[in-house]
Amino acid sequence: MTFQPAIHLDDLPDVGAVQVLLDGRRVAVVRAEDGSLHAVDDTCSHAEVSLSEGEIDDCTIECWLHGSRFDLRTGAPTGLPATRPIDVYPVTVQDDVVLVDVAAPNTSGAGTSGPITSSKEH
Ligand code: FES
């Protein structure tokens, strides 16, 4: 695995997504409502739309254009019009920095390395 720094925890919203560029890929780093951290392709599988501009709800990210939702744990779409999964990347945290391994995407739509739960302390 080749984890690389993506974003500091302080730069992530309490619930939401931020687009980062890693190895030329647009990746959405997401903190879900339960505090878990995820990294997924930032481009919808239906069209060239940035998913990080969409809403996070119940461990899914919504495409703002047509409303498809993608499971942050598997990348699988949970509703039409998108039918193909998005890539999901392994995530870990070190010294309050979110690290992402874009060299090891999971495109099977059947589980990931598991989200990391952050405890945001101030
Ligand atoms: S562009 Fe995302 S669902 Fe259509």
Q: Helix tally?
A: 0
Number of domains: 1
Would you tell me the overall average pLDDT?
Answer: 90
Which structural class should the secondary elements be placed in?
mainly beta
**Helical proportion, percent range:** under 10%
Q: What CATH architecture would you give?
A: 3-layer Sandwich
Structure description:
The structure is a single chain. With 122 residues, this protein is mainly beta. It has strands at residues 4-8, 16-22, 25-31, 36-41, 56-57, 60-62, 69-71, 88-89, 91-94, 97-100, 116-117. It has one domain (4-109): Rieske [2Fe-2S] iron-sulphur domain (Rieske Iron-sulfur Protein, 3-layer Sandwich). It has no helices and eleven strands. β2 (16-22) and β3 (25-31) form a beta hairpin. The structure holds FE2/S2 (inorganic) cluster. FE2/S2 (inorganic) cluster is lined by residues 44, 46-47, 49, 63, 65-66, 68, 81-82. The site of FE2/S2 (inorganic) cluster has 10 residues, from loops.
Topology:
Blueprint: E1 4-8, E2 16-22, E3 25-31, E4 36-41, E5 56-57, E6 60-62, E7 69-71, E8 88-89, E9 91-94, E10 97-100, E11 116-117
Antiparallel strand pairs: 1-10, 2-3, 3-4, 4-8, 4-11, 5-6, 6-7, 9-10
This protein binds FE2/S2 (inorganic) cluster.
Structural features:
122 residues, mainly beta, Rieske Iron-sulfur Protein, five-stranded antiparallel beta sheet, three-stranded antiparallel beta sheet, 0% helix, 37% strand, binds FE2/S2 (inorganic) cluster
